[in-house]
Structures are given as C-alpha cells and as structure tokens.
Amino acid sequence: VILMEILTHDPRVDLLRGHDLPFVMIGRCADQGNLSYVDLDIGAGVAQAIAHLYELGHRRIGLVTLAPVRADKEYAYTTWAVQGYEEACRRYGLPSLWHSSDSDASVEASVLAWLTQHPEVTALVTPQEAEASGHACLHGFNGPFPGGSGLPFVPAGPGRDPVWPRLTSPSGRS
Q: What are the tens digits of pLDDT across the range 36-56?
C-alpha cells in the first residue's frame, strides 16, 4: 500500500499497522517510529529560502501557503512548512507574516488582499506549486518593492525556480 497526502496525525497509519499490512508513505506524519516514507524536508527548504532572502536584505518576508488545516484534516506538508518558516523567523529576528488560503481557487484574491493589508512585506516564499500559479497576479501588484518592479517570490524546495520575477533562488541560479 502506498499512502499519499499524509496528515500530521494520520489515522490510516494505525489502521494499516493494526491489520499488519505493509505500506510506505509519500510524506511523513508526526509519529515516524518504524515507518517507511519518502519525503523532502520542506521545513528546511522554507528555512533556506528565508535565509537567502535575508542575505539579500529582506526583513519582512511573507509565507503564503494553503491552510494547514482544511476540512478538519491537518496536512503534514503544510504544517512542516509553517514550522520551518516560524523557526527561520525566530533565528533571524524577523516578524512572522504568514498567510494561508483555504483553496487553490482563492489564492490570487486572497494573496492580493493580504498584501494590501501588509504593505511591509518585501518578499514571499511558498511551498506549494498551486500557490505559485496564484502568484502570477503579483506581476502587476504595485507595492513598496526594490526598484518598484514587483515582489520577489521564492518557491521553497529543491530545484524550484522563482515564478516572477526571475531574480533569485536559494540554489544560486538567477
């Protein structure tokens, strides 16, 4: 059995263990004891993106993500991303400015409304590709960004390039 879309506290793990069925997860839950899983460390990816933006001089870095809890389910991937963001903010003495959208469909309007309420944000990080498509809307957003050209946006995770503008990425590519 292959489990996907892992929850932070996933009841399927106990169910499969209780029936002595072999399984592997794509993702990880909070209790990882004697579990087989494949996952990327999204918390470390988000922290790396924050460190990169901090080194570029940003001090008001937002995190935009899907809501960690949706439909009474706490999604592990988003939970670990938010934890990585909050830990990096504490490490660098930055304010925690994260925003979550309830669904893929509401991303664009939600992000624009949030940025209007938080004009101090000078860069964004996101762990989800669904969020990246919503950030295309930022191309026309007129905020207080360096050069007035737009908001630097850094997707967290290995091998991911910024969507717009193509200014920077933690891997050193531009």
A: 999 989 999 899 889 988 988
